[in-house]
Design a protein that fits this description.
The protein is α/β, with parallel strands linked by helices. It contains twelve helices and 19 strands.
Length: 530
Amino acid sequence: MDLDTAARKHWDVVIVGSGMGGATVGYALAQKGRSVLFLERGKNLLANDRLAGAYAEMIASEKDTPLSDILPETGRWTSPLHDRSMRLEKTFIPFIGMGSGGSSSLYGAALERFFPEDFEPGKHHNSKNASTLPPTWPISYEEMRSWYVAAERLYQVYGTTDPLRAGHLDPLADYPPLDTANQMIATHLKSKGLHPYRVPGACLEKENCRDCQGFLCATSGKRDSASVCLAPALAEHNAALVDECEVIGVEAGQQTIHRLACIKQGKEIKIDGDLFIFAAGALHTPALMLRSISRQWPKGLANGSAMVGRNLMRHAIDLYLVKLPRPVQRYRKQLAFNDFYLTDKGKLGSVQSFGTLPPLPMLLDGLHKDISHAVPLLSSFFPIMKPFLKPIIQIMTSGKAVFAGILEDLPYADNRIEPHQDKLELYYRLSQYDQQRLRLFRRHIQAAFAPWKVKRLNQAENNERIAHVCGTCRFGDDPDSSVLDRWNKAHELDNLYITDASFFPSSGGINPALTIAANALRVADHIINR
């Protein structure tokens, strides 16, 4: 739909963003007859001219085209993020989604529930640290359970039950068998008393499946929010989408939002609606709110708590390259185990297959960037070093199984996202408490794979690893310490809801996507019945 046509209509629901939180809630509302308009900053990637099947960096290299031209065609974000967390500041383009499906169009399609204990985080962490971690979420696992079931059915999730929480999970769809490498690893882990299982996934695994983690799926096998929710909402339920449309402002009174100011291809226009849902992601939803300063909202929209943009979490994630007795041609994302999620020394996180590493040129480019930031004087020598580094990294990475350790990081008020003029600034440091837990987690994971040789790629401290960002508009029962109520409605506005990962009051130690989708269905049901 063109912007002028969208502006002439008064919508029941206007949704900013079409990722896991936006498309899922919009689909559920459109199914019930609500007129729904999606405003998406990126391109409509449901069209046939998208660039799929490979990383944007590799496509740009093959086409000899600037990466900036390729990113929007491959569902990737295009604007820089300025990391001001450390003495040496850093600017990078975050590896997150932009376009129909948001970051779900890039995800590895692991859709797994949070633990029941994740809904009572205060019981499992040291209360003496300076974290803003609440004792509990405003809802319980049992309240969310039926919505987890609904989201698993909607996204056709398959997998086996985690043996460590069998009483809290529900049966999933049939799953493909483990490949030879993953079966070998599962046998090894079981021999050490651990509990591996088939990670719940939402990928149809068609012939020659490439898992498509980090890039658009070329075979439509990956079930992301664009294919599962956005497409049928548009085709079957009269929802509308305006793509390449940036929301630049919010016009609001003391209790309600009246309209959004949008710009597309240089043209600015206003969009009216009864109810507004922000789902632009945990970086850009708070940025929009903080930029929407007015006489009624001098600190930013719905920011009486001063919590908008704060309590940012992103998970502390390392990669582990495991050398098996036989080399692996292409490692698949199939296994997970949670034996270190809840330990006698505290709550840590999940370990799961990562799948295939990015191609060697991307690994070398990443190394160059890391060296340039850490030791700028060495940057100019990298072209000389590159021919020597290339075979070393090739040997180090080829033929290995790759696992990710996902550590729950805690919320701190100083960890935040802030808009500054036309820039978006990130402030995030791992606390001493989280660093201690990370060291313990690393030791546990190394021991789990022993005696096999394991090379750890330390990424937990790297703020560029921000795909799981969450927490920047947390929900809670206390308006003084949270932005949203238990239904994800802003405490201070009657017609604003937020359904992306911003609402998390704690990050859990597992992939956030299924919890975002399940909560979106819960919120949609509340809106329909309110």
